[in-house]
Here is the input.
Amino acid sequence: MLELIVISTLNGVLFGMLLFLLSSGLTVIFSMMGVLNFAHASFYMLGAFFGYQLTRWIGFWPALVLAPLLVGAVGMAVERYGLRNTHKHGHVAELLLTFGLAFAIEEIVSMIWGKSPMDYRIPAALDFPAFTVFSTNYPAYKIFMLAVSVAIFVALLVVLKRTRVGLIVQAALTHPNMVGHLGHNVGRVFMLVFGVGSALAGLAGVIAGPALVTQSDMASLLGPILFVVIVFGGLGSLPGAFIASLLIGLIQTFAVALNGSLASAFGPLDPGLGPSVLTDVWNVTIAQIAPVLPYVLLVLILIVRPVGLLGTRET
Amino acid sequence: MSEIATMTPEAVKEQPGALRFYGIWLIAAIALILLPLVFSSGGSLTSFSLIGIAIIFALSYNILLGQTGLLSFGHAVQYGLGGFLAVHVMNAVASHDLPIPLPFIPLVGGIGGLAFAMLVGWVMTKRAGTVFAMISLGIGELVASSSLILRSVFGGEAGITTDRTALPHMFGWSFGPQLQVYYLIAFWVMLSAVAMYALTRTPLGRICNAVRDNPERVEFIGYDPHVVRYLAYGFAGFFAGIAGGLAAVNFEIANSAYLGATQSGLVLFAAFIGGTAYFFGPILGAILVTYLQLGLTNVTTVWQLYFGIIFIGIVMFAPGGIAGLLMMHRPLVRAGSLAMVIPSYLVAALPTLALALGVILSIETVARYTASQGEGNIINLLGVPFDATKPVTWAVAAVLVVGGFLIARLSWRRVAEAWDRAATIARDRGYLA
Here is the structure.
């Protein structure tokens, strides 16, 4: 039991940090530009596929740097030539543009790489057990993923809190017009932020690709969870997104690891009904309801606290 | 004063005569009756049935997006749950010999959609805008993933089947042949379309528009936008459920794909491509999207990509959709200045067509070159065969895309200039505000 708790906590924190790599970019883009980027998870997928392809051509380590840069460039192009032109039609049009993009990117990826999972392997240099907890070997690659996510998290924090660029971004979060009046090129700041956000999503894709599955439906599987994270944390709140990422990461991981069901917990009390909704609920395992849990959380938070965990905005 | 003076002629002309108004609906009804007599093959009957279901579904979606300004990413939930309830009721009717004939089954679907919309709607419609969009997505995913767990209700991956001919017959119709199902669908299309149009004319429909445009002012005049959004959500759910019930009758099966994100995305595409600002927009969109869906699947493996590209194109260049594009020309037609624009359209059409052909050729080339799923390397474009492995094809595609883009950009600028001149004339004659 203790073994399960330790391993699941490690995995949960890891998944949570990965989620935060994605949700941080999404939150900053949303609060600055008012655009909820539907294609954000698609950038994550592009990162994974670019990482896979570049790893085959030039190796994992150059790919780790190049693939996020490529994804960032794609993101900047989307902002410059897509969103900026659509802005005059309002936020719904912008949201729909990113929705269409997410749809198109998924189709393009499955057109080029096919619909089956890629053979994206962990680099040989990291393919060894880092340490042994109880009887389980914990892979070094997961520690590497954790280290990268934490490093990016710290770097992001330092940039936002300690540099001039971070100051402008923070100001543009709440008062974009004032920042513009002070002579900053808000358009360029937006483009850069969009690029950096996409690059972070791409990085998450490159490092998550070998550990999870690299497949053309990975964006549509992760995307909705990402939106749950940022709504749950409170739209536009970075600390909220951080807490929600960790929380949902942990909940998902623990739910998958636990195999209990009502039937196994209260076996002798089996009501013995025929096949009905009740027997479905009675027999379902916690692992099976893991994919539903984030959405249950979403509904709960909306009933209890509609602005989200740390949200202040009524948008 | 001058504003009133310029508004008056248009306001007078905007009133359509009662004859013209009912005439449009009458013509639509006659067209629905005559269609299967003109195109009587089995394939076209199936297509018409699908288009009819898509029309109701898209119109119900437009109650949310077009009328109330609520962007939903989970509208298929109501559609799917309506379909499932319809299938269960059909099975119950058949096994217990209840006196409910098949034509009433879509109403059961509608009640299912309405019930679920009323259940979740209150929490969902608390806020509009982006938050509503996200919540609708979340609810959609919640129901779609739950449907795979609750196997006894949703039948797992396989779904639940039914037999529409086992229900009590009506007017001696068994509803076995597709023709009879078509007429059933046509009847419900007409009924739902009239009902939804009437809804836009009621005070509720008008206050929905007000909530879309300025919720704060609606509060000042004494209405609660939350309640209005909730009611709109309920109506949309009801009509989506009718569409789902019809789908259940048509396919004799309901499965979890009915509820999924793909279905929600398709209805959004249909409504938006058609145009959300006009009542007939989603009808055009539903016809086009269903037709493309049926037509393109035979021609290409990457038809969904073309969907995405068309949608992105509409969002970026014509956010009013097809209906918006058509209605843009109405003042020009009335002012008689449309003829000034047409030559520039014809000039612009050529490079735009070249650009489109270039994009199609490059997509097909990439698709054959990478996936090579045993379809051969020959692309047949407008009767000209292209070999995807030959550099000549790539060169042609590149020239078409780049050249088409550059010339199209120039020629569309000319269109804009011609448009400005024509619009000025229309404005002078008082047809354009």
